[in-house]
């Protein structure tokens, strides 16, 4: 027997495998493939105040080693989530995390206030890779002042664990992480997708309707791994690693550099069983290597430097 459970700032995960927002729907869609209660946690598809249809098609393009997406935060809206989804997921035996996004601070605050009343939701994840319309489209996640104010105000409004999902700002991510920590974030998750584009050489037009989109998949793992490592070294709150995780070895890389858990995204689109396969592979790895506890892996890379 080996222990896969991890405790992250008071949240007890039965294992470090969490599904990333936007790639696992609202969880119930995957129940036909396996018992999703075997997972450590779920981050539900990002919610906004009102339902969103998202961007026009085409909005997903395959690239070498990954995908570009420009879904545009398509979702059913907070009220439909409460009425239709919450009754189905509220009693699931795993950590339940709601991702929220807004075009203004007030929209984030309203969402946080509403979700505060949902007793069975364990944590909030702030998707801050959104433009602040009131500030002329400046992105919350790339502006330290806007990020700090947003995190600080939401922290005052909620007793739930507050996770801030950071964008891949290579030159500034440590400062963003420190600001989020100082303003009340309980956990940081990183990274979000990296901006990219693709050109159709048959007609020399963009492959995405929005021209640019978010790049994810194994091609971004080296970048994500480096940024997680940098942030782990510079903050005192736990980190959840995201980016290009396709198998258990990828998970081990993130844990070894100090991430307490991981979120798996694009891989779910390729194989709906990938998360449960990874959990089983982690168990087998620990047994093979004579580890009794997954927590023995966390930070081991840094100790070996």
Q: Your description of this structure?
A:
The protein has a single domain, classed as TIM Barrel, CATH 3.20.20. The radius of gyration is 18 Å and the shape is globular. With 305 residues, the chain is an alpha/beta fold. The strands form 5 sheets. It has an 8-stranded parallel beta barrel with strand order 3-4-7-8-11-12-17-18, surrounded by 7 helices. A 4-stranded antiparallel beta sheet has the order 5-6-16-13, with no helix packed on it. The chain contains 9 helices and 18 strands. Helix 2 (105-116) runs parallel beside helix 3, helix 3 runs parallel beside helix 4 (173-182) and helix 6 (248-256) crosses helix 8 (274-288). It has helices at residues 78-89, 105-116, 144-157, 173-182, 221-234, 248-256, 267-270, 274-288, 300-303; strands at 6-8, 11-13, 17-19, 41-47, 60-63, 66-69, 95-100, 123-127, 131-132, 138-139, 161-166, 187-190, 194-197, 199-200, 205-206, 212-216, 239-242, 261-264. Helix content is 31%, strand content 23%.
């Amino acid at each position: 027997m080996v222990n896969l459970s991890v405790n992250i700032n008071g949240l007890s995960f039965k294992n470090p495998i969490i599904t990333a927002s936007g790639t696992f729907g609202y969880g119930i869609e995957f129940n036909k493939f396996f018992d999703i209660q075997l997972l450590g946690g779920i981050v539900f598809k990002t919610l906004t105040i009102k339902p969103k249809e998202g961007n026009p098609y085409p909005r997903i393009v395959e690239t070498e080693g990954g995908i570009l997406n420009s879904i545009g935060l398509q979702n059913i809206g907070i009220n439909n989530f409460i009425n239709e989804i919450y009754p189905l997921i509220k009693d699931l035996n795993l950590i339940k995390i709601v991702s929220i996004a807004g075009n203004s601070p007030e929209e984030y605050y309203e969402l946080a206030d509403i979700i505060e009343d949902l007793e069975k939701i364990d944590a909030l994840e702030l998707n801050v890779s959104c433009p602040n319309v009131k500030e002329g489209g400046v992105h919350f996640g790339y502006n330290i002042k806007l990020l700090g104010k947003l995190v600080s105000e939401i922290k005052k409004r909620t007793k739930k664990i507050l996770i801030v999902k950071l964008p891949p700002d290579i030159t500034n991510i440590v400062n963003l992480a420190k600001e989020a920590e100082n303003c009340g974030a309980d956990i940081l998750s990183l990274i979000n997708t990296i901006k990219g584009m693709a050109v159709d050489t048959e007609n020399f037009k963009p492959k995405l309707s929005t021209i640019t989109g978010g790049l994810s998949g194994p091609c971004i793992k080296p970048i994500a791994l480096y940024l997680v490592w940098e942030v782990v070294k510079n903050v005192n709150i736990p980190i959840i690693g995201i980016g290009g995780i396709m198998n258990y070895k990828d998970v081990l890389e993130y844990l070894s550099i100090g991430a307490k858990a991981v979120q798996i995204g694009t891989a779910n689109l390729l194989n709906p069983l990938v998360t449960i396969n990874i959990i089983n592979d982690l168990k087998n790895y620990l047994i093979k290597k004579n580890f009794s506890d997954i927590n023995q892996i966390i930070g081991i890379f840094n100790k070996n430097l």
